[in-house]
Design goal:
Helix content of chain A: over 70%
Largest interface: A-B, 48 and 46 residues
Number of strands of chain B: 4
Order of helices and strands of chain B: HHHHEEEHHHHEHHH
Distance between the termini of chain B: 56 Å
Oligomer: heterotrimer
Strand order of the largest sheet of chain B: 1-4
Chains: A mainly alpha (367), B mainly alpha (294), C alpha/beta (252)
Largest sheet of chain A: 3 strands, antiparallel
Structural class of chain B: mainly alpha
Strand content of chain B: under 5%
Helix content of chain B: over 70%
Strand content of chain A: 5-15%
Order of helices and strands of chain A: HHHHHEEEEHHHHEHHHHHH
Radius of gyration of chain A: 23 Å
Number of helices of chain A: 15
Number of strands of chain A: 5
Shape of chain B: globular
Distance between the termini of chain A: 45 Å
Shape of chain A: globular
Radius of gyration of chain B: 19 Å
Chain lengths: 367, 294, 252
C-alpha cells in the first residue's frame, strides 16, 4: 500500500514537470498566435509582417525538427534543407496534380502534407541506413552532400503528364514526349509553377503545434530515452541492449519527415517553387542550424523562439539586413564558445544566478 | 582525342583539389577537426592577390607573398580565438559548428568589403599553354604549375612531418594529445603551427585555383573547399599522399561526369563518390581504421 | 550446471595475444573475482564476454547456451550485463531515466503509444518508474532520482551504473573495477552493496578488482590473469597464497 502510494506520487511529480514545461511551450505559441490574429484584424500589422507569418512557422518547424537530430540524437546534419526540398516538391507535385481531382483545399492540403512528410521521411530512412553508421564529421559532410545531390537532381528533373500517364526525363521538356494537351508539371530548373496557395498562418501554427507535440512526446517516451542514451554514450547504450541503428534511424527519419512538412508548408506559400541554393541549399541548412544553436542544442522551445527572433530581426531592423549573415556567423561562434568552452562553463557556474542567490542566502543566515 | 583532353582537364581541376586537400588533411590529421573555414581562407588568399595585383598593380610575387603571410596569420588567429577554447569541449559537435560559423564569418566579411559581384582574376602564371597533336590537345600553364607545386608541397610535407622535430611533434599530438603533453611537447603551439602551414597552403591554393578558374566571389572558396574535403576523405583523411591521389581522382571523375553524363549533375556525381567511398571503405584509399576503446 | 562456461577463449590484436587459452567456469550464485596486474587482459575478457570483441577461438556458454560471437545487444538480452572501468553513464539524463534505459527491453509500448500518450504508455511508464525506483532504493539513490547523472558524486555514479546494469535483469553481472577511485569507507559500503545485491537478486557476479581487501573480503573464487593467460584459479584464500600469484604481483 505504502509502496504504491509513493509510486503514484513520484509518477505524478515526474509527469508534472515535463507536462508543465510542454504546456508553457504550447501556451507561448497559442498566445503569440492570438495576439497576431488580434493585431491583424485590428489592421495593425504591415504587409511585410503578414508575408512573414507562414515563413516563421516554416522555420520554427525546421528548427524543431533539426533539433531532434542535433540535440536529441546528437548527430550534426547539414542536409536538413534537402529533406525540406523533398517534402516541398512531393507536396507541391501532389497538389498540382490533384487540383482538378480534389478541389477542396481542406482535404487536399492535409494529404499533400502527409505525402510530403512520408516522402521526406522515406528519404531520411534511406539515407540514414548507410549514413548513420558514420560518426561526427563524416556524418555532417555526408548529409551536406546529400542535400546538394537532392537539389542538383531536382534541378534536372522534368515530369509531365498526359492521357497516358506520367513521363519523366532528366534532359529537357521536349524529351518528355508529351502528347498534344499534355502538361509539364516539374520543369527542371524552373521548378513547379502554379502550386495552389493553400498555406495560411493558422495552418502553419497548427502544424507547428503538431510538430512540437510529436517531438516533445517522443523525447519523454521509451524510444526518446533510448535515443538520448545513444547520444550520451553509445557503448553503454549497447551494453544495456539498445538497438543503436534502429533508434538512430527512427530519430533521423522523424526529423526528416517533419522537415518535409515544413517544405510542404513552404511550397504552398509560393506560386513558383524552384530548388535554388538560397532556399534548399547548404546555406539554408546552416541557417536552420543557427536557429538550433541559438535556441540551445536540445532545447525545443528555444528553437522555436530563436527561429522567430532571427527571422524577424533582420526584417524589422532594415539597417541590419546587409549584416544579417554576418550576425548569424557571429552568433554561431559566440554561442558555441559561451556554451561549450570548458573555461566559459567554469565562469558561468561560478557567477551563475543560482550561485549568487545561494551566496546571498548564506550571508543572511550567517548574519 | 577528346578523351585525353578531358583527362588533362580533369588532372588540372584535380590538382587544385589536391592542393586544397593537402591543407585539409593535415589539419584534420593532426588537430582532429574538420576545418570548414579552410575553403574560405583560400578565398581570402585569392582576394588578397586580386587587390594587390589587379587593383594596385603590384607584381604577382609580392601579392602571393603577402597572401601567404596574411592567410597564415588568419589561420593562427582563427585557431586561437575560435577552436582552441573548444578543444576540450564535451561535445564533438561544438568545434564543428564553430568552424561553420567561422566559414560564414569570412564569407560575409569579404562580401561586405568587396560586394557580391564577380571579379575577374588575372592569372599569375605567365606560361603559354602547350599544344600537342596539332593543337587538338592543350595543356595550360596553370595546370603544369599547379601539378608541379602540388607535388613539391606534398614531398616537402612528407619530409617535414617525418624528418623534422616539429613534424614528429605533430605526429605525436595526432596520436595522443595528453601523452604528447606529458612528453614535453607543447600541444598548443604544435596545433598552431599546423594551422599556420595549412593556411599558408590555402593561400597558394587560392591563387592557383583562381588563376585556372578566374572568377572570384566571396563564395568562391566554399564549394572547392567542400569538394577538397571529399577528395581528402576519398584518399584517406590524414594521409598526405592520399590527399594528392584523392584530389586528382576526384577532378578526373568530375570532369568525366560533366563530359559523359550530365554537366548539371557534376556536383551530384562528386558527392555520390563521397557517399560510396564512405560506405565501402570509410577509411579511404590510404587511411587507417580507428576504433573507440572500451 | 555452471552458469558461465568459457573454454579455450583467445583473441589477438595485430599479433599480440591479448587473451590466450582462457578457461572459466562460474557456478550460479557465485561471487567470482578476476584479478591480475595491469594490462593482463582482464577488461579484454569482459569485452569478449559481452560481445564488444569477437573471439578468434573459444566457446562462451551462458546457462548452457552458446553465445560465442553474438552481438553485444543480443548478449545483453541473453543475460549478461556489465559496468565499465571508466564510468559510462548517460550523463544528460536523470538518474531515474538512466535506470529506465536499462529497463528498455523488459517493458514495451510502441512509438505511437508514446507520442499520443495512449493508456498503454501511462500504464507501462508507471510500472517502469516503480521498478526503477525500487532499484534506486537498493543503492540509496532514490533521493537523487531527478538529478542529472553527471551531477552525482563519483561513488554514487558507480552505484548508478550497477543499478542500470541490474535493470536489464541479467543472469550474470560483470563489474569492471567497481571500487576504483573510492576511499576505504566507500569501498566498505560498496562491498556491503555487492553482497546485498547477490542475496536480494540471487545474482551471479564476476568482478575485476585491484583492491585486495575487497577481493579477499567478498570473492569466493578467483582467477588470476597474467600476460593474457590464466596463472591460477580456485578458492580465494588458496589463490592468494599461491607463490606464482605473489610473484606476479610483487615481482621476484
Amino acid at each position: 500500500m505504502q509502496k504504491e502510494k509513493i509510486n503514484l506520487i513520484s509518477k505524478f511529480k515526474n509527469a508534472n514537470k515535463n507536462f508543465k514545461s510542454n504546456c508553457i511551450t504550447y501556451g507561448i505559441i497559442l498566445a503569440a498566435f492570438l495576439l497576431i490574429q488580434i493585431l491583424v484584424s485590428a489592421g495593425a500589422v504591415s504587409n511585410l509582417i503578414k508575408g512573414l507569418l507562414v515563413p516563421l512557422c516554416t522555420y520554427a518547424i525546421l528548427a524543431v525538427s533539426l533539433n531532434l537530430t542535433v540535440g536529441i540524437l546528437g548527430e550534426l546534419s547539414l542536409g536538413h534543407a534537402g529533406f525540406m526540398c523533398v517534402g516541398a516538391f512531393a507536396g507541391a507535385f501532389f497538389s498540382k496534380c490533384m487540383v482538378g481531382a480534389i478541389p477542396s483545399a481542406i482535404i487536399r492540403f492535409p494529404l499533400a502534407i502527409l505525402i510530403g512528410a512520408v516522402c521526406a521521411g522515406f528519404f531520411g530512412f534511406l539515407i540514414g541506413i548507410p549514413v548513420l553508421r558514420l560518426k561526427g564529421d563524416y556524418l555532417a559532410i555526408v548529409t551536406l552532400a546529400f542535400g546538394e545531390i537532392v537539389k542538383n537532381i531536382i534541378n534536372c528533373l522534368y515530369v509531365g503528364r498526359d492521357s497516358k500517364g506520367f513521363h519523366f526525363s532528366m534532359e529537357d521538356t521536349a524529351s518528355l514526349g508529351l502528347e498534344e494537351g499534355g502538361e509539364v508539371i516539374i520543369k527542371g530548373a524552373q521548378g513547379i509553377t502554379g502550386t495552389p496557395n493553400d498555406s495560411t498562418f493558422t495552418i502553419g501554427i497548427v502544424l507547428l503545434l503538431i510538430t512540437l507535440f510529436i517531438v516533445l512526446n517522443l523525447i519523454h517516451s521509451r524510444d526518446g530515452r533510448a535515443i538520448m542514451a545513444i547520444r550520451d554514450n553509445t557503448i553503454a547504450a549497447e551494453s544495456v541492449g539498445i538497438h543503436i541503428t534502429k533508434y538512430k534511424l527512427m530519430a533521423f527519419s522523424i526529423s526528416a519527415a517533419l522537415a518535409g512538412v515544413a517544405g510542404v508548408l513552404y511550397a504552398h506559400n509560393l506560386s513558383t517553387l524552384t530548388a535554388l541554393p538560397k532556399n534548399f541549399g547548404y546555406n539554408q541548412s546552416i541557417m536552420i542550424l543557427v536557429f538550433v544553436v541559438l535556441g540551445g542544442i536540445g532545447n525545443i522551445r528555444g528553437s522555436v523562439i530563436s527561429a522567430v527572433i532571427l527571422t524577424l530581426l533582420p526584417e524589422l531592423l532594415r539597417g541590419l539586413k546587409d549584416y544579417r549573415m554576418l550576425i548569424y556567423a557571429v552568433i554561431l561562434i559566440a554561442m558555441m564558445l559561451f556554451n561549450w568552452s570548458p573555461k566559459c562553463r567554469e565562469l558561468r557556474e561560478k557567477y551563475s544566478f543560482k550561485q549568487l542567490l545561494a551566496k546571498r542566502k548564506n550571508k543572511k543566515e550567517a548574519a | 582525342m577528346s578523351f585525353i583532353q578531358y583527362l588533362i582537364n580533369g588532372i588540372s581541376l584535380g590538382s587544385v583539389y589536391a592542393l586544397i586537400a593537402l591543407g585539409y588533411t593535415m589539419v584534420y590529421g593532426i588537430a582532429k577537426m574538420l576545418n570548414f573555414a579552410h575553403g574560405d581562407v583560400i578565398m581570402v588568399g585569392a582576394f588578397t592577390v586580386y587587390t594587390l595585383c589587379s587593383t594596385l598593380g603590384l607584381p604577382p610575387a609580392v601579392g602571393i607573398l603577402v597572401a601567404v603571410v596574411l592567410c597564415t596569420c588568419l589561420g593562427i588567429s582563427i585557431e586561437k580565438v575560435a577552436y582552441k577554447p573548444l578543444r576540450k569541449a564535451a561535445s564533438p559537435l561544438a568545434v564543428l559548428i564553430t568552424a561553420i560559423g567561422v566559414s560564414y564569418l569570412l564569407q560575409n566579411a569579404v562580401l561586405l568589403i568587396f560586394g557580391a559581384d564577380t571579379k575577374a582574376f588575372t592569372s599569375v602564371v605567365p606560361i603559354e599553354p602547350i599544344k600537342l597533336a596539332d593543337g587538338q590537345i592543350s595543356i595550360s600553364g596553370e595546370t603544369l604549375v599547379t601539378v608541379l607545386v602540388c607535388l613539391v608541397i606534398m614531398v616537402s610535407l612528407i619530409l617535414f612531418i617525418n624528418k623534422s622535430k616539429v613534424g614528429q611533434a605533430m605526429l605525436a599530438v595526432s596520436e595522443d594529445k595528453g601523452a604528447a603533453q606529458l612528453m614535453g611537447i607543447n600541444v598548443n603551439s604544435t596545433i598552431a603551427i599546423t594551422f599556420a602551414i595549412g593556411s599558408a597552403l590555402a593561400a597558394v591554393a587560392g591563387v592557383l585555383y583562381c588563376s585556372a578558374y578566374p572568377s572570384l566571389t566571396p563564395y568562391t572558396g566554399s564549394m572547392p573547399g567542400i569538394k577538397a574535403f571529399v577528395a581528402a576523405v576519398f584518399g584517406g583523411i590524414g594521409s598526405i599522399p592520399g590527399a594528392f591521389i584523392g584530389g586528382i581522382l576526384l577532378g578526373i571523375i568530375e570532369t568525366f561526369g560533366k563530359a559523359y553524363i550530365s554537366s548539371q549533375l557534376s556536383d551530384a556525381i562528386v558527392f555520390g563518390v563521397l557517399i560510396v567511398v564512405l560506405l565501402v571503405k570509410p577509411s579511404g584509399l590510404l587511411g587507417k581504421n580507428i576504433q573507440e576503446k572500451v | 550446471m555452471a552458469l558461465l562456461e568459457v573454454q579455450n577463449l583467445g583473441i589477438s590484436f595485430g599479433g599480440l595475444r591479448a587473451v590466450d587459452d582462457f578457461n572459466l567456469t562460474i557456478e550460479k550464485g557465485c561471487l567470482y573475482g578476476l584479478i591480475g596486474p595491469n594490462g593482463a587482459g582482464k577488461t579484454t575478457v569482459f569485452n569478449l564476454l559481452t560481445g564488444v570483441y569477437k573471439p578468434n577461438v573459444g566457446i562462451i556458454k551462458l546457462d548452457g547456451k552458446d553465445i560465442t560471437g553474438r552481438k553485444n545487444i543480443d548478449i545483453n538480452k541473453a543475460g549478461i550485463a556489465r559496468t565499465f572501468q571508466n564510468i559510462r553513464l548517460f550523463k544528460e539524463l536523470s538518474v531515474l531515466d538512466n535506470v529506465k534505459v536499462g529497463l528498455h527491453n523488459r517493458y514495451h509500448y510502441n512509438t505511437l503509444a508514446g507520442i499520443f500518450r495512449l493508456p498503454k504508455y501511462r500504464k507501462v511508464e508507471a510500472q517502469m518508474n516503480a521498478e526503477a525506483i525500487e532499484l534506486l532504493k537498493v543503492f540509496g539513490l532514490e533521493e537523487e532520482k531527478d538529478f542529472l547523472a553527471s551531477n552525482l558524486p563519483y561513488g554514487k555514479q558507480r552505484k548508478l551504473e550497477i543499478a542500470r546494469a541490474l535493470a536489464t535483469n541479467p543472469k550474470l553481472l560483470l563489474l569492471d573495477e567497481p571500487a576504483a577511485g573510492m576511499n576505504p569507507n566507500e569501498t566498505q559500503e560498496l562491498m556491503d552493496t555487492i553482497r546485498f545485491v547477490r542475496e536480494k537478486f540471487n545474482m551471479t557476479i564476476l568482478l575485476i578488482e585491484h583492491d585486495m581487501k575487497l577481493v579477499s573480503g567478498i570473492c569466493e573464487k578467483l582467477t588470476v590473469l597474467n600476460f593474457g593467460r590464466v596463472l591460477c584459479q580456485g578458492e580465494t584464500a588458496e589463490v592468494l597464497q599461491n607463490p606464482e600469484v605473489v610473484k606476479a604481483y610483487l615481482g621476484e
